[in-house]
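Fold this sequence, please.
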Amino acid sequence: MVDSRKAMVIGAGDLGSRVLQGLASGGSGRELRLVGRNAEATLRAANLAALSSLQTGHRNVVSEAVSDLFDVDRTAETISEFQPDVIFLTASLQSWWVISTLPQPAFQRLYRANFGPWLPMHLIPVMYAMRAVRAAGSDAVVVNAAFPDAVHPALAAAGLSPHVGIGNVANNVPGIQSSAADLLGVDVHRIDVRFIAHHYVSHRLSRTGDSGAADMILRLLLDGADVTDRLDLAELLGALPGRYRRTGGRDGQVMTAASALSVLAPLLDNLEAVVHAPGPLGRIGGYPVSLSPSGIKVVLPDGVTEAQADAANRSGQRCDGITEITADGTVRFEPEPAGVLAEELGYHCTQMRLDEAEDCAREIGERFAAYRERVLTDPGYQTRPRLAVTV
């Protein structure tokens, strides 16, 4: 009899709960454990996944455990007790969609910063989780949902990068695949996509249908043959905010959960698959990735070099607000996006070492909470003109 394969989902919030349900309602013989900080919320989410799985006739086991990621010893003990084959991290100090809950004028002001300057909010929980993984001596494949495009290369310097991420580059692949099938007049399952792009590009494509100032690399295959030259890419990509526009914000995490399952299911079931994922093996940005029992491997399209792929992702990184991530994990931020957080929150940071990241995250959190309170209680504050800030 083959032993069951085990997956641990760390983070019992919206995304973690969605992914747990997907894992519980697919495959067979899986052993799943949800880990969260709040005992009641974690139990309810685990029970929902377990009971809905049972309702649909699947034979998977779901359990729960309580731990705070900032308690490294307890989290390491939780990992050691369960001995997972795969760990999925969903924790963030501030989810990406939170600023969208602000009144529109305030949201639009903060939106100008793009994603890069918020990096500490996503990096810190992953860093603590990876410390626990190392302390547990676990050889699990670690998959991370929190801004892998930048979190992974920053943590790689300390030997704390997860193996691979989810979402971002993957989220537009089904829309690109569908648009290409429409233009070619073929069944969508005959189309394969090979896409190299940073988070910035993926985020922009679904809203504008273009990559802006950032580079990207896209190849379309029909029955394995490259047909990219047969397609008008502007028309193809224009379908993403057009014909294939989709729900965004928190409700749109259905797509992120689906992207997570495309990575987690093959890893958990020891199957081979080619998927799209950000931050593979500590790299900047997103790539096509081969998953198999023998490991994770980046798969470049024919004719594309490592240097070309890296350059494309670095251009997206700059557009997202990060100038560079150095070999020692120091992050340098672009002046204009960093200036948005300085102007709106009073948070000044153009460079951050790894050992400064926790203090940076704490300051951003405190300043954002105060900012949110102001814009919600003072209607005039959110529309009041700001002075330019030099950073």
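The chain has 13 helices and 15 strands. The longest helix spans residues 357-377.
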